[in-house]
Design brief:
The complex is a heterotrimer. By secondary structure, chain A is mostly helical. Chain A is 71% helix and 3% strand. Chain A has a single domain, classed as Fumarate reductase/succinate dehydrogenase, transmembrane subunit (3 helical TM bundles of succinate and fumarate reductases, Up-down Bundle). Chain C folds into two domains: 101 residues, Ubiquitin-like (UB roll), CATH 3.10.20; 135 residues, Fumarate Reductase Iron-sulfur Protein, Chain B, domain 2. The chains are: A mainly alpha, B mainly alpha, C alpha+beta. At the A-B interface, helix 1, helix 2, helix 3 and helix 4 of A face helix 1, helix 2, helix 3 and helix 4 of B.
Chain lengths: 135, 117, 247
């Protein structure tokens, strides 16, 4: 009935991968959300450069930047961006021990130590930056 | 025989950028994107920020952060387009768009941080 | 009346239908039965035409991998009662061509595995009279985890890149390459690098991590791949900055 089927070589079924393969499974969806965080990383750099430019141009420009950042749409965007940034940081630090096997004095450093070191560094650098900025 | 490969070095940029972005961008965005605009804490004076930004160490750190974070985005977004939207057939365009964009952004960051301040 | 549970099993009979279909079987729900026991009950008592692979029924041969309720599982290590009251969907392992019913074609993996040279490579062959190659327990610990792979292909089924990129070596092959790279007796790491440090090797991986989640033997192929990315990147950096130094 089917020319593609022979007794010695049946026709294999090869399903195609759908474009939205990642939408059907929770773990895949979380993965794609994690990957999309990179867009908000790029946005944060843009926002940071806008700030640097405004600061370099003087008090008026700086005030304009502050007004822009208080705009409800901008605020909403940055809250979303912040959520993605934090998600990026958490997933990054939690995955770090899988990628880094560190040996100290012949023993393997435990995974919790590597993750903990990342979070500690995060807290320290954030505190330092906040202290410098708030003066 | 190890032949010259770009992909591992580009991946190193991606990894460093991911770490830098994770460590430094959240606090900056929290302060300038939420806390100061919402008025929870008064925004620092322009003069203070200017002197802070003009510090050579600050400039180097911020430039490093911007360049690495942009290349982190470029690399990750490239693969998101390949795998998430199955656009691998447009890979040449995507590579130019992503890494080219990161280069342009890096040049802009270099200008703003080194020449503009 | 003992409990029953329904199995919704994919059937694919290319000699009579162009597409797979689903057939339901009602089987007894015994507390100690694995999904494989359920399939064997179907084959023995309900429908002898059902085709599927299995062998050791104890999680070491790697034959009985199938997609159970959407997840890649060893059917001998997955219990019916975990899915009570059912029904349980049993499909062939994803990302592989289906030959018949639940039987998939793994030739692609069988051709990719030898590419990473999964054997001990020595610079010079030694005579048997030279004695054994010695290794401490600490040396063994460096690669032991990656030697636990049973080639069950659950990781290939879980990995979206395997489904998207035909040439991608895949989690198990790279983990097995690492098993030898990290073995103190092996001297072939630079030989494997030309195969591993490519777009079809580690650089195609985006660390989804599903391979590690699916692995029934805790091999952590995702970890093996990320570690190799660091190794390969460090080597690329070295050859770029210090090209005169040997690999």
């Amino acid at each position: 009935m089917n020319a593609r089927y022979t007794e010695f070589h049946p026709r294999w079924h090869r399903p195609r991968m759908p474009v939205f393969w990642w939408a059907g499974r929770r773990s895949y969806l979380i993965f794609v959300i994690r990957e999309l965080s990179s867009v908000f990383v790029a946005w944060s750099v843009v926002f940071l450069l806008l700030l640097v430019h405004a600061v370099s141009q003087g008090g008026t420009q700086y005030q304009q930047f502050l007004n822009l950042s208080s705009n409800p749409w901008m605020l909403a965007l940055n809250v979303i961006a912040l959520a993605f940034l934090v998600f990026h940081a958490i997933t990054w630090f939690n995955l770090a021990p899988q990628a880094m096997v560190v040996h100290l004095r012949g023993r393997r450093v435990p995974r919790s130590a590597i993750t903990g070191a990342h979070y500690a560094g995060w807290a320290l650098l954030s505190a330092l930056a906040a202290w410098l900025i708030l003066g | 025989m190890a032949k010259r490969r770009a992909e591992p070095l580009v991946w190193l940029l991606f990894t460093s950028g991911g770490l830098a972005a994770a460590l430094l961008l959240p606090v900056l965005l929290v302060l300038f994107g939420l806390v100061f605009p919402a008025g929870w804490v008064p925004a620092p004076a322009q003069a203070h920020l200017l002197s802070l930004a003009r510090n050579p160490l600050t400039r180097v750190v911020l430039l490093g952060l911007c360049v690495l974070a942009l290349f982190h985005w470029a690399h990750r977004f490239r693969y998101t387009l390949y795998d998430g939207l199955q656009l691998k057939h447009l890979s040449k365009l995507i590579i130019v768009g992503c890494y080219g964009g990161a280069l342009v952004g890096s040049a802009l960051a270099g200008y703003l941080l080194l020449a503009g301040l | 009346m003992a409990d029953q549970i329904i199995l919704q099993v994919t059937r694919y009979r290319p000699e009579r239908e162009p597409e797979p279909t689903t057939q339901e079987y009602e089987i007894p729900l015994h507390e100690e039965w694995a999904v494989l026991d359920g399939l064997n009950h179907v084959k023995d008592h309900l429908d002898g035409t059902l085709s599927y692979r299995w062998s050791c029924r104890m999680g070491i041969c790697g034959s009985c991998g199938m997609t159970v309720n959407g997840d890649p599982r060893l059917t001998c290590a997955t219990f019916l009662t975990d899915y009570r009251p059912g029904p349980i969907r049993i499909e062939p392992l994803r990302n592989f061509p289906v030959i018949r019913d639940l039987v998939v074609e793994i030739g692609d993996f069988m051709r990719k595995l030898p590419k990473v040279k999964p054997w001990l490579i020595r610079a010079e062959d030694a005579a048997a009279t030279d004695g054994e190659l010695l290794q401490t327990p600490a040396d063994l610990d460096e690669y032991k985890q990656y030697s636990m792979c049973i080639n069950c292909m659950l990781c290939y089924s879980a990995c979206p890149i395997v489904g998207l990129e035909e040439g991608f070596l895949g989690p198990a092959a790279i983990a097995l390459a690492q098993r030898y790279n990290l073995d103190s007796r092996d001297q072939g790491a630079h030989e494997r690098m030309d195969v591993l440090s490519t777009a079809d090797g580690v650089w195609g991986c985006t660390f989804v991590g599903e391979c590690t989640t699916a692995c029934p033997k805790d091999v952590d192929p995702a970890g093996a791949i990320q570690r190799y990315k660091l190794t390969a990147a460090a080597e690329s950096l070295r050859s770029f900055l210090l090209p005169w130094r040997p690999a």
